[in-house]
Design brief:
Rossmann fold, alpha/beta, 182 residues, five-stranded mixed beta sheet, elongated, DNA integration, 51% helix, 13% strand, Arc Repressor Mutant, subunit A
Length: 182
């Protein structure tokens, strides 16, 4: 039996140290990543654990929100573990999916994690709407040099060549050229 620790934070400026220190006494090895937990996409370290975990092994996380932010993702991860004969332990919330109580508690916490994510998203959208109303929100800064596109087009280059030269999507070049011609 092996115990695999998994530590995750959402952004590159966040620190994993607290999670790693908390997992170390309970695990044989720890995989870590800095990636959003709202989706299973791009979570290569978690994928490695799920690919290699075997019967009798345990995936250990400090809190359920470090593993998943939606009930669907949490259920998919737990199902994959169970199908392989492995289990999940959550150290801070004292959950062990080898027990019926642990499974039930895990599902309840998953619902709350998803609820928290949805509330945060709603607040963010409300804040953006208010800032737009007050004229304080202008969106993100333009990342494509419109003048460079114009100059390259005037030099006789087509949208595909412009996109390649500037390292941007061809669809963005078409959109900006269309805006310029009005």
């Amino acid at each position: 039996m092996k115990k695999y620790g998994y530590a995750r934070v959402s952004t590159t400026d966040q620190d994993l140290t607290v999670q790693i220190e908390a997992l170390a006494p309970f695990t044989d090895m720890i995989r870590e990543e800095k990636q959003s937990g709202t989706s299973l996409k791009n979570r290569s370290e978690l994928r490695i654990i799920l690919d290699f975990i075997q019967e009798g092994d345990v995936l250990v996380v400090t809190r359920i929100d470090r593993l998943a932010r939606s009930v669907a993702d949490l259920s998919a991860i737990v199902k994959e573990l169970m199908d392989k004969g492995a289990s999940l332990e959550v150290t801070e919330q004292n959950i062990d999916t080898n027990t019926a109580t642990g499974k039930a508690f895990l599902q309840m916490l998953g619902v709350f994690a998803e609820f928290e994510t949805n509330i945060r998203r709603e607040r963010q959208l409300e804040g953006i709407a208010k800032a737009k109303q007050e004229g304080k929100y202008r969106g993100r800064k333009k990342s494509i040099d419109r003048e460079a596109i114009k100059k390259l087009q005037q030099a006789g280059k087509g949208p595909a060549a412009i996109a390649k030269e500037l390292g941007v999507a061809r669809s963005s070049v078409y959109r900006l050229l269309e805006e310029q011609t009005g």
